[in-house]
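Q: Is it fine to ask for two folds in a single conversation?
A: Yes, each is treated on its own. Send the first.
Q: Here.
A: Result:
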Amino acid sequence: SYVRPQRMICIIALAAWFAYIVYVRRASPWPETPVLLPEDERKIARMYGVGSIEDAAYVSGKSVPAFRRLSSSSSVLDQRALLDAAFTGGAAERVMEVARRRSSIKSTRSSELSTSE
């Protein structure tokens, strides 16, 4: 009869699914945060008025992994949380702080170059 082979196939399939679940729990084959292309990182950072994804995370008040996870999410609630964080009262001050920091780094580099010549 066909019942016995069908049972064997089901048992093998269940064992394979169980082995796969154990593997996924132990090995964690997926990255903790999504990997973004450099062009995508620049595009996201430009939306916050800064030059890098790290600065954009600072402006939004999130950690870099949390910012990457939220910015690559397709959930409307995650996108809304990022927009809310970007337009809070402290975000403008953080953008200005990043701009000051960047300008001081550039002025320091240019003065080092002029003194070395």
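Q: Second one now.
A: Result:
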Amino acid sequence: ALEGAINYGVGSKMQQSIGKQIIAITHSASVAANADRHVVIERSRKRKSSSSSTFIQTRVVDGASRRKEIARMASGDLVPGEAEAFADALIRDALNQKDSFTLDPPDLRL
């Protein structure tokens, strides 16, 4: 329960940081659901005889692919349908939080 409360708090702080750039690296579906942009980072290893190389691949996910990624992150013991419903709820909650904050115009004085 503590982990969930911390993740919710991080997501809430992200929502309050309108107009600022935040880069969060997380394994938490609830934190990822608060992102305006979601980038998946994957590491893979390729072996060649006696040595191996590590490769890093990134991809931006949005729409249905973002929903599936958040469901994958949240899945744990959930069956796929439940995980996707949970992902929908996380995304919907994040969007509702965004709507509750207002953007103050930036101070453009030099």
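Q: Anything structural to flag on that second result?
A: Two points. Helices lie at 2-16, 29-32, 63-74, 80-100. The first strand starts at residue 38 and ends at 48.
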